[in-house]
Amino acid sequence: MSDQNRFAAETERFRRKLFAHCYRMVGSAQDAEDLVQETYLRAWRSDSGFDGRASVRSWLYRIATNVCLTALRTRRSRVLPSGLTGPYDGPERPPDLVAPEEVSWLEPLPDRR
Known about the structure:
mainly alpha; 4 helices; 50% helix; Rna Polymerase Sigma Factor, Chain: A
């Protein structure tokens, strides 16, 4: 079996779970897909250095987590649109536009996922 076929056989079964992991970290389906691709690229490049002390699953999750954290670190802060509330002249923190139990930064995940 070639290295490419072996790598695909060992790692492909984790793709959906890695996508969910990345989606939960970055909140965007498009970004999560890109980050999963980057995870597989980094894993492929460092496959020769994987010595099997950990499971393939934990190795991929570690790579995915690092890829996501790097992406979040370099991501710019989102600018809130203006005009949604009146002028602000209150305490230190502006009023929340989203209910406390909702996650304001999470994009909807398409049904096909």
